[in-house]
Amino acid sequence: MKIVQSLWSKPGHKRMEWNKCGWPDRKYNYYSWTLSALQFRKFYDDVELVTDQAGYELLIDKLKLPYTSVKVELDQLNDYHEDLYALGKVYAYGLQDGPFIHADGDVFIWRPFDASLEQAALVCQCKEDGEDYNRWYAGVFMEIAQAFSTYPQVLDRTVSRNNRLIAANAGIIGGREMGFFREFVREAFAFIDKNLDSLHKINIDLFNSIFEQLLFHAMSEDAGLTINYLHPDFVRFGNDIIDFTGVPDRTGFIHTIGAHKKSWFTLDALEFRLKKDYPDYYRNIHHLIKTHQV
Fold first, then answer.
1. CB distance 36 to 105 below 8 Å
2. Is the confidence at residue 13, as pLDDT, over 90?
């Protein structure tokens, strides 16, 4: 199985914190990317980075992360709105020509994925379903449906089929159905390209979950394809998904999603793991910061 990670730097430049990526200090972003890449390389022989020139200079030239291959492709997206942060990931899916699992740069593993997951047609982290998710997706989708001149009709079909909106969390996403991924990428870009003049009418940040996670689940249903979930019974993001205390015996997968990046327990645990397991990389990060290279 090929592991893919991607970094499109333009969204972070707009926020004046592309080197933070949601972390309270840039050093934690560097810790995160470093620990994530090294842990995937520990268990997989094929780990690819898809990025732009700025991302290459950071992750490869400076942090010296040991990806087995690198594609510098994402500068081609720079005419798109900077708030479309998931677009770099979607583009990276479209570059794949064989089975893959894409993982975010704040995902860490301490064991390889199960064979059943690696052999699945489609893979995601977990299903986003339940009352709170349904209410949230419905509110975001209604704003888009009213503002845009067109949207994929598969979204109407999924509402008719389920009487609600269900999404698939893309902390990890991938599979073996490459024809499906090619169609999904085309549909996601068409969704955006046909409505470029209306983006100012919506909350673009929230739109990312619609053209990636909601559309992915809806299209998988339409295609009759089952999504295998890493956490099939997961309902809400709680502390179990960032349980560094269980590493490596009890916990094999961590995703420091959203507000968890602001938790001092998470920050301290992340730094401890990197410093303990990869001290040379840890020292390199602090040298780069001290010498104002990052």
1. yes
2. no
